[in-house]
Amino acid sequence: MGNFGSWLIKVGQSCLLIGQIITHILIYRRFHWRNTIEQMSIVGTESLLITLITASFVGAVFTIQVAREFINFGAQQAIGGILAIALARELIPVLTAVIIAGRIGSAFAAEIGTMQVTEQIDALYMLRTNPIDYLATPRAIACLLMLPILTILGFLTGMAGGLFLSQAMYAISPTMFLNSVQDLLKPWDLIAALIKSSIFGVLIATIGTTWGLTTTGGAKGVGESTTTAVVTALLSIFISNFFLSWLFFQGIGSSLTAR
Q1: Distance separating alpha carbons of residues 131 and 242, to the nearest angstrom
Q2: How far apart are the C-alpha atoms of 33 and 69, rounded to whole Å?
Q3: H helix or E strand, kind and range, residue 112
Q4: How far apart are CA 160 and CA 60, in angstroms?
């Protein structure tokens, strides 16, 4: 990641940026609706296809991994529910965030980094436009709102992939599959997935924006900022996912009692 000290400074700046975004939204009530809608389209609509394709294959692969073992133990009636819990709690929120970090987080860092090294950020100040209102806040709001939507759609697609494969390869009826989902999947599992994805979205947006705004060194600096922003976003996703899972599902205790 280059100089570790400068990396830590940028991580701190990302945390400060989150506070500034919240302040500008709740107190100053300043942000650009047009930019926000445009970013929502980029984050949501343009990322939808790859998210659904990934989710469908993840659901199918998970079914392949667990179905035969469950059938050997005579627990085929639980396959649908186990798949639903795995997708909702961990697989879909994390994988969707990873996709967005690679596709959108890198784009944020590269776009804003290019603006920084070509002095377009300075031009915004000259025009009395705050980069936080114009650049950071729309991206944070877009990721905050669109990540949960992508997660829900990815979950449904992953379940459809698992249902299809269960019926086609293991002769598990859709009724048995869906009854298992109804018995094991609880509302809190989906709520936790939405909370996770929202937090992941804010992290991705603020990290990409921070690394873009602090870019130096011309074209080479833009490339370095983009790469480091993606790596940092991925680290933040995995680390925050650990603590969120610990919080939501009572650490080493039975996760079934968390509902």
Answers
A1: 32
A2: 51
A3: helix 106-117
A4: 9
